[in-house]
Amino acid sequence: MLRGQLRRQSQGTAGSATHARVQNMVVFSVAGQRLAARTEEIGGVLPWPGTTPVPSDTPLVTALVRYEESCLPVFDLAAKFNRTVREEDSLCLIVKHVDGPLAICIDAQVPSLHVVPRSELQYQSGLDPDIAGSCVAGDEQLPLINLATLGVASRRST
Amino acid sequence: MGLRGQRAVTISNGHAVRFLVTSIGGSSVALPAHWVRGIVTPASAGPDGLVAWAGMQYERTDLAARLKIISGGLSHDTRLILYGNEEKARSFAVDKVLGLLDVERALICPLPPQFRGQERERLLGFFVDPSFVALIANPFWALELPLRPQALEIFAIRSSERSPSEAESIHLPAVAMDEALSMSTGPVS
User: Does B119 map to a domain?
Assistant: First the structure.
């Protein structure tokens, strides 16, 4: 449902002078934790299909969800923030991860799109490599999460 | 899906792998059926856990615990899978035997690269059925044999060359499976 909006927004802004000065962001929440992410790191939003647990030693990657003809790995972003998401009232955020598509269970509230001036983005390297910094979107100061490298950066830093 | 009948996920002229699909702790766990030597009830095991069957002894291994799956516990559907090759044999309990399934090789997916831990040794991948997603246990790991790359390839059978009668002749102890299934309504001691 989000894919069409993302495409239209990207076509509308591509090549324009303002493109360089703004960043398209998606704001969503995971178990009540509000987060912002770059739109180019998101592949779409679907109803949560339910998971198949995988007995895994990989931190936060412990399930598969059905997607089209196959399955996607699930990154438990709620657990990363020591929270629990109610799967029955959830959406599935498809992430364009560097290792391949990834699913994240997010709250049922449909993600919102924001055009954020780059001046409102603050990149900083903190303790959590999955957090790129923060941004102001819709009058909210939100953590900016690196969806495309979720888990990868954490692993390198340990 | 019954054990007496078997079905294919797709009909094709490619290679397929025949799996015994089981349920352990709510997870569907599939093993290449080529190394299944028998399916018996827990009552068939001796006090030491050994199962003697068809002239061979099968030492018990707790596959559920090794897979890090919490088993559903003993029930009328619990079965011991007798699994082995020329080098090694083991028995392990499953909560339920779901049946045999021929899966086209192209439909068998490896674990996505985001899974980076020891689970890559335990699980070769998965396949999707309309009613479940089956995790494929590594048969070499299950038998505590040295692991090998592309382990599933040795289990591939050419589906275009296989007639229903030939399918029955592959190393599957179909009679034993039927017996095990018919025992499923009886008490488990």
Answer: yes
A76-100 pLDDT, tens digit each: 999 999 999 888 889 999 999 999 9
Out of A55, A66, A99, closest to residue B114 by CB: A99
Is B172 a member of any domain? Answer: yes
Select the residue from B114, B115, B128 to test the A interface by mutation, using most A Cβ atoms within 10 A.
B114
Distances (CA, A) of A158 to A143, A151, B5, B28: 21, 11, 51, 33
Q: Give tens-digit pLDDT for B74-100.
A: 999 999 999 999 999 999 999 999 999
Contact check, Cβ <8 Å, A58/B27? no
| Beta-bridge partner residues of A157 | none
Angstroms from B147 CA to nearest CA on chain A: 18
Total tally of structural domains belonging to chain B: 1
pTM of the shown model: 0.83
Q: Are A150 and A95 in contact (CB under 8 A)?
A: yes
Which range marks the domain in which residue B112 is found? 15-181
